[in-house]
Amino acid sequence: MLFFIYAIIGMQVFGNIMLASDSQITRHNNFRTFFQGLMLLFRCATGEAWQAIMMACVKGRPCDPLSKKDKPECGSNMAYAYFVSFIFFCSFLMLNLFVAVIMDNFDYLTRDSSILGAHHLDEFIRVWAEYDPNATGYIHYTEMYDMLRNMDPPLGFGNKCPYRLAYKKLIRMNMPVTEEGKVNFSTTLFALIRENLSIKMRPAEEMDQADKELKETIRKLWPLHARK
User: Fold this and answer.
1) Are the C-beta atoms of 40 and 30 separated by less than 8 Å?
2) pLDDT surpasses 60 at 27
3) Cα Rg for the chain, rounded, in angstroms?
4) Using an 8 Å Cβ cutoff, are 111 and 153 in contact?
5) What global pTM score does this model have?
6) Which residue from 97, 136, 158, 222 puts its CA 20 to 30 A from 82's CA?
7) Could you give all domains of the chain from N- to C-terminal order, each with its CATH number?
8) C-alpha separations of 28 from 6, 35, 125 in Å
């Protein structure tokens, strides 16, 4: 939107300047058309000779004969405010936008997932119910990825979790799958708690005992939910 607005303004104010090979306004670098205006602004956004382009657009430049302008001079002193404001928005606002996106993703990867409360169990039950409307206690394993992406951390992955990291977590969870290709509600919950809190980690042959111990722990932490 920023480039679109500035390209339209540039066409109206600087589109009639004569093209010259010894100037920054050439047949490859001008405001004659909307596309060429976008390309010129993109060049300015990279910081390449934007000051020289600005000076080539100030008042007193010769007009293109095809423009049929009554006055002999084209350009405008508005070029100073036009280019300086454009560089300001590109260099500061858009740079801050990219930094904010990077920091937001970095925050996801480094956040503390060790705090698990009863409201997380409520969210797990709510999201699971969307994929298991008949309350069978089972969903197909192919729905696991979408379900956990729709569930916020620490139990779920969240919609900002990178795909590769999400699949690595699913592999580490090592959940048993039935002959119909389905996973169990309780088994999935226990696997998520073990994965995110790194507790009750056991070899595969001792996983049943680990689940029993984890179930007792959940009953102590969430007594009201455990009785449901």
Assistant:
1) yes
2) yes
3) 30
4) yes
5) 0.44
6) 97
7) 1-110 (1.10.287.70), 118-197 (1.10.238.10)
8) 18, 11, 60
